Amino acid sequence: MRGGFAHIDAMLLTLACLLASAASAETDPEVLPALGACLREAIGTVVVQGESSYDEARRCRNTRVDIIPTPLAVVRVSHEGEVQAAVRCAASQGVQACARAGAHG
Questions:
Q1: Is the pLDDT of residue 16 over 60?
Q2: From CA 76, how far away is CA 47, in angstroms rounded?
Q3: Per-residue three-class SS string for the chain
């Protein structure tokens, strides 16, 4: 599918999909490991909470302390299929997916 907002090829190399924290993740300790496993099956670069590179991966270019996101996971995708996989994994675990492109804060 090409055209309109569906045409995302130009921004995919810098797209970071942030999987927002959800109440289910706080009450179900199996959500984070299951989410990480699902993401790693289809996506090359995946960082989840608790890993040593998490703090760096979740930072936006805008470094205001009051807007630093706290996602369950950060994935960097390189093609449309990885975006789709991230959304499917988030949905399967009951968490929200949020896409950020480029260097925006």
A1: no
A2: 9
A3: CCCHHHCCHHHHHHCEEEEECCHHHHHCCCHHHHHHHHHHHHCCEEEECCCCCHHHHHCCCCCCHHHCCCCCEEEECCCHHHHHHHHHHHHHHCCEEEEECCCCC
Longest dimension (CA), the chain: 41
Q: Which two tokens stand for residue 97?
A: 């997916």
pLDDT at 40 > cutoff 90: yes
- Owner of token pair 């009051």: 66
